[in-house]
Amino acid sequence: MHTKTIAELAKGLRAKEFSSLELTQHYLDRIKQAEILNSFVTVTEQQAIATAKKADEQLASGEGGVLTGIPLAQKDIFCTQDVKTSCGSKMLDNFISPYNATVIEKFNQAGAVMLGKLNMDEFAMGSSNETSFYGPVKNPWDTGTVPGGSSGGSASAVAARLAAGATGTDTGGSIRQPAAFCGITGLKPTYGRVSRYGMIAFASSLDQAGPMTQTVEDAAIMLQTMAGFDVKDSTSVDLPVPDYRAELNNNISGLKIGVIKEFFAEGLDSECAATVETALDEYRKLGAEIKEISMPNLKLSIPVYYVIAPAECSANLSRFDGVRFGYRCENPEDLNDLYIRSRGEGLGAEVKRRILIGTYALSAGYYDAYYIKAQKVRRLISEDFKKAFAEVDVIMGPVTPSTAFGLGEKTGDPIAMYLSDMYTIAVNLAGLPAISVPAGFAGNKPVGLQIIGDYFAESRVLNAAHQYQLVTDWHRRLPEQFA
Ligand code: GLN
């Protein structure tokens, strides 16, 4: 059952090949057998079984939608009522949310089964899932390597088929980079397409939730449920949600694909470059036109991001003060001691580094030099994309400069870690949609292909990605150990 996609499982449920209860139990067993991956922070077994039984009743009376009875898992950044929401941090190790995030609420209404909450980098800060309070997650393709981050638990769980699909969030690449490292499909939607309500904030102008799945079709199915305006999130956009599956089968002959010259300059591993080239050849065969484009400001993405993201995080994380939420130190002497020790003991090193950098960048006297300057360059990066989309329909390129690296390999060198997002971050700065799809292997390690679209062009991105999956089978490969 676990090799089936969401679309196939939905058919199987209706054809009574299996029940949601059997399916859910099957995934719960797989989760137990794959504990070595450390993908889950919390497994919600009882709740999952109860939801599956309800789904079976609904299905028996001919009701329910495509996600009814489908076992999914949620990144532990989404608030879940009565279930621990840790965000990968000691700070929230004891936090039980009194309400559901909008995304969770929507999956509940769709009748999806929640198997549990997935491990992640602390407060979504990281590229390897090694900053989690709950320990690193392992990559099912090679358990000596990282799954990527920050949605490392999600990518690892879907790659090992411990859930039919999962949610992730992407502030600078955290859906696409782990999807590439683990050989799955991951979509970061346009900023504002999916509600951020109840999704613990890291950098509010960049954060966006999206699906992580085996196939593009499944990503379309999950996005259909996730997308839409939400009165509780003033940055969600009030545009109609198209039928994302409707355009998957459009012919892409004549599609204009831009390839960013600068992405193939220095820093890209030769096997990753060759894999992307081979994928582009597939597109040529499908009748697409490939055009080289230049985006001169993209090289500034990492420095700009590492001013803006820490600045926003320093503001967002000020709420974790030992008073209102989560961890509180023992026997504080006075209020200052309570703040200092609660934050000092409750937050990890990477999170503290970012809070310090962000506070510095926002301080009087430096605000103009760093924060305002970064915002100006951010605009230039968006302009580069705007010019590109006047000429091409989608942009394609690598997701990551290399394949999954070894556990511990980059933990001592934050800059090397930050560089793993060099091809993904510009998309967040501009607020565009982009997908990572499996495009091959370097040795036994998966390589991803990135497809970037214009604002709210998710349908076009999904269409281009789906057509590629129709002529390739990289997305159907499964790590041997978890077959
Ligand atoms: N790896 C990047 C960072 O550490 C992006 C994280 C993310 O997208 N949440 O900030």
What does this structure look like?
The protein has 483 residues and is α/β, with parallel strands linked by helices. 37% of the residues lie in helices and 13% in strands. It has helices at residues 6-14, 20-33, 45-60, 102-109, 152-159, 176-182, 216-226, 270-285, 301-316, 335-346, 349-361, 367-391, 414-418, 425-430, 458-471, and strands at 40-43, 71-75, 113-118, 165-169, 185-188, 209-213, 256-260, 289-293, 394-398, 434-442, 445-452. An eleven-stranded mixed sheet has the order 1-3-2-4-6-5-10-11-9-7-8, with helices on both faces. Helix 4 (102-109) links the parallel strand 2 and strand 3 (113-118). It is globular, with a radius of gyration of 21 Å. The protein starts with 5 loop residues before the first helix and ends in a 12-residue tail after the last helix. Residues 124-127, 150, 170-174, 202, 309, 421 line the site of glutamine. Glutamine (GLN) binds at residues 124-127, 150, 170-174, 202, 309, 421.
